[in-house]
């Protein structure tokens, strides 16, 4: 019985082949897989559209780091914070001022209202210099300098975090555009494939070998493929616009994207190792920890406002023009030490110290909050990348099975054993499988880039 069924099947296949040959009907072979199309596209870069510039992921990252304004903003803020350190440190250095004064007054008259000062007014001209040097304020200025230095280091880490943000954004935009281009390539291939089938069905319908229902289904399939091209083209253009934005360009550049031909690396075996790496390397976490240390030193400085300040002062000058009665000799000079002791200012210093202490505690809690978020984000990124890695294997098998199903559907349709509905369904499944295969490859590479970002190990 089995031999009989086999013989019947072979006979039907031979008859179908002879029938198709007699009618000059040759269905196109199964379209090449997306992996083949991508490899062919990368190996034949000279066939890119005229005017399209080749662009790799590494080149996209370099352009983004060079042109994106966020990089410049972060670098300028870090440089500005370094100047704050110089401003604060100036309190430890001597202050030297030069003065020149000429006074015309009613000789011997006195100021009788206003603030407490030397009341006698005299005609004179004088010039001199004044020197002030802080001796000690019991650590306040030292803590202020340390706080500003830590804030400068935090600004540098924030600039590094911005750099890694831009690298991640460039990678995601690159792979999104690459995925859109691959989908557009599948859509164009699908249109060509269904156009050929539609032409053949039209010829068979004109020869009264197929019904108008087959012709209608073929036209519907072709229209669906054309709609897919329109949507894919729109997505590709939008993805290219996003890429240009990340690259810091306002021009409408259309790049021919080239993916790395090497196989992407595997995901780390466990999320715990990635979390440990993130705790050591994340620049945003380092920035927040440095800011907390700066807040602690600033809190100490605010508490030290309640302590005395000891400073030295010196002054020297001459009076070339003036009454000899009052300006004899015609020069002056003095040196001394001043101790300033805060007694009461409406509890201002106490409030400032309490405020600084509370802000230091708040920044510590912010660091803890960021640690919790990093652990969550790393675990999520690791799970997503691990799933995407598995999807690559599944989608590759899906493409293989979809191609096989389409071959069988075409053979059954040629033999008259099925309707065009079955063939259309097989074509649709193949298109969906090829798009899924494209998404799986590029989404996995994008997920790997996200995992590198979350672990603080961006190149």
Q: Based on DSSP secondary structure assignment, what is the total number of beta strands?
A: 6
Number of discrete helical segments: 10
- The CATH C-level class name: Mainly Alpha
CATH topology tier name:
Outer membrane efflux proteins (OEP)
Note poorly predicted spans: 1-50
Order of helices and strands: HHEHHEEHHEHHEEHH
Mean pLDDT: 85
General shape? elongated
How big a fraction of the residues is strand?
5-15%
Strand count, sense and barrel status of the largest sheet are: 4 strands, antiparallel
Secondary-structure content class: alpha+beta
CATH architecture: Up-down Bundle
Q: Give the neighbour order of strands across the main sheet.
A: 2-3-5-6
N→C terminal distance? 66 Å
Kindly provide the radius of gyration, computed on alpha-carbon positions and rounded to a whole number of angstroms. 40 Å
The CATH superfamily title? Outer membrane efflux proteins (OEP)
Share of helical residues: 55-70%
Counted up, domains total: 1
What does this structure look like?
The structure is a single chain. The protein has 459 residues and is of the alpha+beta class. The protein has a single domain, classed as Outer membrane efflux proteins (OEP). 65% of the residues lie in helices and 11% in strands. The chain starts with a helix and ends with a helix.
Gist of the model:
The chain has 459 residues and is of the alpha+beta class. It has 10 helices and 6 strands; from the N terminus they run H-H-E-H-H-E-E-H-H-E-H-H-E-E-H-H. It has one domain: Outer membrane efflux proteins (OEP), CATH 1.20.1600.10.
């Amino acid at each position: 019985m089995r031999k009989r069924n086999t013989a019947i099947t072979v006979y039907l296949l031979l008859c179908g082949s002879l029938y198709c040959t007699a009618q000059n009907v040759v269905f196109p072979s199964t379209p090449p897989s997306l992996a083949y199309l991508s490899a062919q596209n990368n190996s034949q870069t000279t066939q890119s559209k005229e005017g399209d510039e080749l662009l790799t992921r590494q080149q996209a990252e370099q352009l983004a780091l060079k042109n994106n304004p966020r990089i410049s903003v972060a670098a300028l803020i870090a440089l500005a914070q370094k100047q704050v350190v110089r401003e604060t440190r100036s309190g430890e250095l001597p202050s030297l001022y030069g003065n020149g004064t000429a006074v015309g007054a009613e000789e011997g008259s006195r100021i009788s209202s206003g603030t407490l000062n030397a009341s006698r007014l005299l005609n004179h001209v004088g010039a001199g210099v004044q020197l002030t040097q802080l001796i000690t304020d019991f650590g306040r200025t030292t803590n202020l300098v340390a706080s500003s230095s830590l804030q400068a280091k935090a600004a540098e880490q924030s600039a590094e975090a911005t750099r890694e943000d831009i690298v991640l954004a460039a990678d995601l935009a690159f792979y999104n555009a690459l995925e859109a281009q691959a989908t557009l390539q599948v859509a164009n291939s699908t249109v060509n494939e269904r156009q050929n089938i539609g032409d053949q069905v039209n010829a068979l319908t004109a020869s009264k070998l197929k019904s108008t229902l087959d012709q209608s289904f073929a036209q519907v399939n072709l229209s669906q493929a054309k709609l897919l091209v329109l949507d894919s083209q729109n997505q590709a253009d939008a993805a290219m616009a996003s890429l240009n934005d990340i690259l810091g360009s306002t021009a409408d550049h259309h790049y021919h994207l080239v993916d790395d031909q090497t196989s992407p690396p595997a995901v780390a075996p466990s999320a715990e190792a990635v979390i440990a790496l993130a705790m050591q390397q994340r620049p945003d976490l380092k920035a927040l920890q440095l800011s907390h240390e700066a807040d602690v030193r600033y809190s100490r400085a605010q508490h030290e406002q309640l302590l005395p300040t000891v400073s030295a002062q010196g002054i020297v000058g001459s009076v070339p023009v003036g009454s000899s009665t009052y300006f004899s000799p015609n020069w002056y000079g003095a040196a001394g030490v001043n101790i300033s002791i805060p007694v009461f200012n409406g509890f201002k210093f106490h409030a400032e110290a309490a405020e600084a202490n509370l802000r230091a505690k708040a920044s510590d809690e912010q660091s803890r909050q960021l640690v919790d978020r990093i652990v969550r984000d790393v675990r999520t990124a690791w799970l997503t990348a691990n799933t995407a890695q598995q999807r690559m294997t599944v989608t590759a098998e899906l493409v293989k099975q979809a191609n096989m199903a389409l071959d069988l559907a075409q053979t059954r349709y040629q033999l008259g054993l099925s309707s065009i509905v079955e063939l259309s369904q097989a074509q649709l499944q193949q298109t969906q499988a090829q798009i899924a295969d494209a998404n799986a490859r590029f989404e996995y590479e994008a997920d790997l880039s996200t995992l590198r970002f979350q672990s603080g190990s961006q190149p």
